[in-house]
Specification:
With 483 residues, the chain is α+β, with helices and mostly antiparallel strands. The protein has 18 helices and 23 strands. Helix content is 29%, strand content 25%. The longest helix has 15 residues, at 280-294. Bound molecules: iron/sulfur cluster (SF4). The site of iron/sulfur cluster has 11 residues, from helix 8 and helix 18.
Length: 483
């Protein structure tokens, strides 16, 4: 959850939700008599940062696919009693922030649907850019939808393709022929656990193993959480089929450029995760290091905005030699459902989540690091808060380039007219936020930060406006008669 930028609220929550995460997915094929529901529970717990609106677990108990899902955090939705009831040979789970579909119970995942060959459960991280066209086409051919999600479009296509294709590989490939956008999918049929990563590799998905049991997860931190060994990342366009402890890989033929979301490195993924060979922590340190070279400052202390700016602040401090310190204390116990304050209190609300450490700040020149500026209003409040606490100067440094464009691939960034950098020069932004100086990273530099990842393998569309595919008016390639 992003704690930024809109402290002039219509909605009290808005200030925490400037850039939204997409979703986290997790699945296990149980070959070791594992308590699958608890394993998925802990996997989801460690993927909570990817979405906090709702979550769910589906289990396959001898071919019976059932599940439990609800609004709220993993710890709120699942009780011991619920987990005891969810037994099975395989299970998948999901944590959600809604990028498509409304925020309501029927849109929670995993989706469980009936189709010709039985039942399947599906968990999706990403966003299809042609979902509404596909949906309309399906509806024109008699399909009925129960949710407002693009994920149900995928489930429906799988079901329809199953009527005509000879095997599951063909079904999935035919589905991938049609869908455009970002998707890391974990699917559970009565026989198999399936993982799919879109041909651009926009969202992460990795494979782990615990004993003889394969695990699929959005991030390696979820494998660590359950004590599983990391095997490898799912490749862009790869379909992983797991059945009776055997893993099979099938490649979807494509010529799409690998375009992993650079914002996962900047902000979304957990710092203890590795994605496509690169450490998230190291990428953020490197961002801070490069920022210190590009935008040095005369200062006494380097501090990060918790939590997203902390690692880059360490990198900046190490490169510049300016001591790293804590100047902002975050209240970690403020959940998403707290009592709405009065208008007067709303205006003071940043102090509910964040407070300045006068002791550390008073009389000092501060380098303040954050991962991004979207609207600018939270940044302005934080700068003001530090100045009120006695900071002599605030040198704001942003460990990403200016966000100039929206995202179409599952990350909910404000629209272009709300993006401060899309509407103001950097000097204007500095003035608006009240900082003494302001520096952003360059696109060139940010793309160097995921050390170990394949070069030129990133989407940076929200900084450049150049996306890995045509957006948002995509020709509708869908035909019901393809198989
Ligand atoms: S547009 Fe930005 S946030 Fe969206 S996938 Fe590309 S890099 Fe990530």
């Amino acid at each position: 959850m992003k704690e930024k930028d809109s402290l002039v609220f219509n909605d009290f929550y808005e200030y925490e939700d400037e850039i939204h995460e997409a979703c986290g997915v997790f699945g296990v094929d149980n070959m070791d008599n594992i308590d699958v529901s608890r394993l998925v529970y802990f996997g989801l717990y460690s993927l909570q940062h990817r979405g906090q609106e709702s979550c769910g677990i589906a289990v396959n108990d001898n071919g019976q696919i059932t599940g439990h899902k609800g609004m709220g955090l993993v710890a709120e939705v699942f009780t011991e009693k619920v987990l005891d009831r969810l037994e099975g040979k395989a299970a998948i789970g999901h944590t959600r922030y809604s990028t498509t579909g409304g925020n309501s119970l029927e849109n929670c995942q995993p989706l469980i649907v009936n189709y010709k060959d039985g039942r399947l459960a599906l968990a999706h991280n990403g966003n299809l850019i042609n979902a509404s066209k596909i949906r309309l086409d399906l509806e024109n051919h008699g399909a009925i939808f129960q949710t407002a999600t693009d994920s149900e479009v995928i489930a429906n296509l799988i079901s329809r393709n199953g009527l005509k294709c000879k095997d599951i590989e063909e079904v999935l490939k035919k589905t991938m022929d049609v869908i455009e956008g970002s998707y890391a999918l974990v699917i559970m049929t009565q026989k198999r656990l399936i993982g799919i990563r879109d041909p651009w590799g926009l969202r992460p998905l990795c494979i782990g193993k615990l004993g003889n049991s394969y695990i699929l997860a959005s991030e390696t931190c979820a494998l660590d959480a359950v004590g599983a060994e990391f095997i490898r990342d799912v490749l862009p366009g790869e379909i992983i089929l797991i059945e009776e402890g055997q893993l099979r890989s099938v490649m979807y033929e494509h010529k799409k450029p690998h375009s992993f979301c650079i914002f996962e490195h900047i902000y979304f993924a957990r710092p203890d995760s590795f994605i496509d060979g690169a450490s998230i922590y190291r990428a953020r340190l490197e961002a801070g290091r490069l920022l210190a070279i590009q935008h040095p400052a005369e200062a006494d202390l380097v501090v990060g905005v918790p939590d997203s700016g902390l690692t880059a602040a360490i990198g900046f401090s190490r490169q510049s030699g300016i001591p790293y310190g804590e100047a902002l204390i975050k209240n970690r116990y403020v959940g998403r459902t707290f009592i709405q304050p009065s208008q007067k209190l709303r205006e003071q609300s940043v102090n509910i989540k964040l407070n300045a450490l006068k002791e550390e700040v008073d009389g000092k020149r501060i380098v303040l690091i954050d991962d991004s500026i979207v609207r600018g209003t939270t940044t302005k409040k934080i700068v003001q808060m530090l100045k009120n606490a006695g900071a002599k100067e605030i040198h704001m440094r942003i460990s990403s380039p200016p966000v100039l464009y929206p995202c179409y691939f599952g990350i909910d960034i404000a629209s272009r007219d709300q993006l401060i950098a899309a509407n103001h020069e950097i000097e204007d932004i500095r003035e608006i936020i009240g900082a003494d100086s302001l520096g952003f990273m360059t696109v060139e530099d940010i793309l160097k930060t995921p050390v170990g990842a394949p070069p030129n393998s990133f989407c940076a569309g929200c900084f450049t406006g150049r996306y890995p595919m045509k957006v948002p008016k995509e020709a509708n390639k869908f035909s019901l008669d393809k198989c």
